Amino acid sequence: MKKLTIIIVLICIQLNAQSTINGKVYDSKNNPIIGANIYLEGTYDGTSSDETGSFSFTTSETGSVTLVISYLSYETFTMLGDLSYMKDLSIKLREDVNSLDAVVLSAGTFNAGDNSKVNVLNPLDVVTTASALGDFVGALQTLPGTSTVAEDGRLFVRGGDANETQIFIDGIRVFTPYSPTTNNAPTRGRYSPFLFDGITFSTGGYSAEFGQALSSVLLLNTIDEPDQEKTDIGIMSVGATLGNTQKWEKSSISVNASYINLAPYNAIFTNRNDWIKPFQTASGEAVYRKKTDSGLFKLYGAFDTSSFELTQEDINDPEGFYVNLNNKNLYFNGSYQSVLNDTWSMNTGFSYTYAKNKINLIDSNIKDTENSIHAKVKFKNRISNRFKLYFGAEYFATDFKENYNDETIDDIKYGYNNNIAAAFAEADIFISKNLAFKTGLRAEYSELFRDFTLAPRLSVAYKTSSKSQVSLAYGNFYQNPSSNILKFNQDLKAQNTSHYILNYQFNLYGKIFRAEAYYKSYDNLVKYDTDFTNFDSNYNNNGSGFAKGIDFFWRDSKSVKNFDYWISYSFLDTERDYENYPANAQPNFANTHNLSLVGKYWIDDWKSQVGFSYLYASGRTYTNPNEPGFLNEKTKAFNSLSLNWAYLISPQKILYASVNNVLGFKNINGYQYANTLDINGNFNRRALQPATDQFFFVGFFWTISEDKKSNQLDNL
Asked: What is the CB-side half-sphere exposure of residue 251 using CA atoms within 13 A?
């Protein structure tokens, strides 16, 4: 009997020692949350909320404890206090602004990378597009907002010329991103997609972190860490490539080399140019990565040399237009990203560019040399999940020198130094997972112009449903004139543009739709009063212009098994009064309508991926001197259908073939008119056509890797 009494007393003591914790869990709209996880930190005591959001459990803990309440897509709630205060609680959970279904600030931006919540493209797409021929710039030309300028090959974005788009590698500026070329032969990006895994293409309204670009920025990110050691070998109809990756415990290195020579190709296929020495280039690049205890250090370097010599048809010279070019280019980039503590991180980097050209144009000899550097440091403070602050500073310096001589002029020297200091600050503010803001300010001081500019940036995004959102963006942007202006005159100021963007985006699993309307106003554009820029030109900043339009993009990779396609359409209305224009006019690099259709289909039985790209662009303006007016007529529309085929001989061996403009459309880039009248009182003309109407490519690619499964399909 005594033992039973003791047991009863102990049970009563234990029951009296237990405390009850209870309450209800709601969302921001006071709706009950069912199935929330509620527990005391460091214990097994806890429960889940029921269909009314209510919870209750007991604990033998005493004193001060930490109560934790968590639920998917909501921020975790913690409460520290005495148990006596944890009764009849009313807990309201805030939506997690970092969840996958949260709003994304996307106005004016296309992402292609594994770290983005919403990808319009992925890294594989960038280089398997049929018309791109392995050039990431060529693939981006199938996105809305770009204009088809087939004879150039660079990015023309929303009424801006190619100089208004800047390219960055790991956040650091690339000053000479394109290989040199001749008239009516498109250039290519210098850098191989072999070393990149992420691309962000902003067609307007971009971050305050980036400056000196009136229209667009293209951000390329090198691979942080390769997955394995491997060797890539490519044998092509136009040359060869070789790549290798070595990996250690905390470091790795990847190298890539290529040699291109068009002599064999030109010997087989007819060409409108009279080649004396066909285009050839040798290039190499490498990236070294080193992990530290709190960050990642990367060194990237690229070198290439190219040359060609030819004579092109010229209506004013029966002997033709002679061109001889030799180019050498070196680019070095170092970056370091580090986590300083729980809330602070840092990114810093430096780049150096050396570019040298030797150009002979008929009797003119030109030698120019550019040395440029870019240094930047950026800090990020994650004050909370809802407020993130970014700020930093950077410095650009360019030393450009050019020598000119011909039969009458002996070795004239000219050039400029363009040094710019900049600071920027920006904040991401998430009101909820449905509403977010980005606001920033960029300040620049130009040593050349002794001028200070302030450029505000603002964007807002609102999630209209679980699958859709709308975004607005505004930005003010400055850019110093290009080298062909500054080398002759530095008594100018920065050119300016303002962007206004409205974006709608709809996302389903494997599908995405985007519609974006924009307006851009230009001010302080450079004008001159001669046919070409020279010492005798009179320069001013009285130019202006506008660009407005709407872009559409649709991609579907799920409706048809193994078939992935996207459709892009852009409407552009733009006019400018700049350079030597006598009046406002649609510039000759702008198309009113641009349409792209891209498709890729995997055939299991053939172990092949086949693809197509169709590009359409309405005619571009040109001046017909036989009729009154300036830029008074338009060329016929541009059409091109390209096909490609990748056949897996084995998991690591691929045979690849492509044909650009397979139907042989006779595209015309413009017209050259005679300088003098004919006997009928008219100026004769000749059509400016591509060097070849079609381009054929065949390559064999072999990957040797540890897993014996990797291949170069993502590099084609």
From this structure: 8
> What contacts 351, CB < 8 A, 6 or more positions away?
169, 172, 173, 174, 175, 331, 332, 333, 334, 372, 373, 374, 375
**Residue 569: both structure tokens together:** 């359409």
* Contact assessment for residue 140 and residue 125, using Cβ atoms and an 8 Å cutoff: no
Structure tokens at 529: 């009063």
The CA distance from 696 to 623, in Å, is 33
Q: Which of 518, 527, 528, 517 is nearest to 497 (CA)?
A: 518
Q: What are the backbone dihedrals phi and psi of residue 194, each rounded to the nearest 5 degrees, phi first?
A: -55, -30
C-alpha–C-alpha distance, residues 329 and 176, integer Å: 8
Helices (H), 83-200: 123-128, 136-140
Q: Pick the closest to residue 485 from 498, 494, 473 (CA basis).
A: 494
Single pTM value for the model: 0.85
- State which H helix or E strand residue 14 sits in: helix 2-17
The DSSP element (H or E) to which 620 belongs, if any, is none
Rounded Cα–Cα distance for residues 516 and 552 (Å): 7
Residue with tokens 């702008």, as numbered in its chain: 590
Residue count (the chain): 716
Average pLDDT over residues 644-655: 88
Sheet strands (E) in 557-669: 563-577, 593-603, 608-617, 621-622, 633-634, 638-650, 653-660
CB distance 178 to 190 below 8 Å: yes
List the structure tokens of 454: 């302030």
Cα 562 → chain centroid: 27
Cβ-Cβ contacts under 8 Å for 400 (sequence gap 6 or more): 368, 369, 370, 415, 416, 417, 418, 483, 486, 487
pLDDT tier, 373 (very low <50, low <70, confident <90, very high otherwise) = very high
Question: Which residues on adjacent β-strands are paired with residue 639?
Answer: 616
Percent of the chain beyond pLDDT 90? 57
- Single-letter amino acid, residue 146: T
AA letter at 98 = N
b/e map of 54-70 (b: 16 or more CB within 10 Å)? ebebebebeeebebbbe
For residue 499, the tally of other CB atoms under 10 A from its CB is 26
CA 698, 704, 709, 711 torsion-angle sign: negative
- Round to whole Å and give the CA distance between 496 and 159: 14
**CB of 98 closer than 8 Å to CB of 60:** no
Question: What is the per-residue pLDDT across 338-351, written as a single tens digit (0 to 9) for each?
Answer: 989 888 999 999 99
| d(C-alpha 39, C-alpha 78), whole Å | 10
Radius of gyration of the chain (CA): 30
Average pLDDT, the chain: 88
> Rounded CA gap, 491 and 370, in Å?
20
pLDDT score at 349: 94
Q: d(Cα 39, Cα 48) in Å, to the nearest integer? A: 8
What are the φ and ψ backbone dihedral angles of 130, each rounded to 5 degrees? -60, -40
User: What confidence tens digit (pLDDT) does each residue in 271-296 have?
Assistant: 888 899 999 999 999 999 999 988 99
What pLDDT was estimated at residue 9? 44
Contact in structure between 204 and 108 (CB atoms under 8 Å): yes
Residues 645, 664: contact at Cβ < 8 Å?
Answer: no
pLDDT at residue 266, as a whole number? 87
C-alpha–C-alpha distance, residues 617 and 594, integer Å: 4
Going by C-beta distance under 8 Å and a sequence separation of 6 or more, which residues neighbour residue 1? none
Strands 19-26 and 239-247, bridge-based pairing: unpaired
CB atoms within 10 A of CB 250: 12
Phi-psi region of 598 (alpha: psi -120 to 50; beta: other; left: phi over 0): beta
| Cβ count near 650 (within 10 Å) | 10
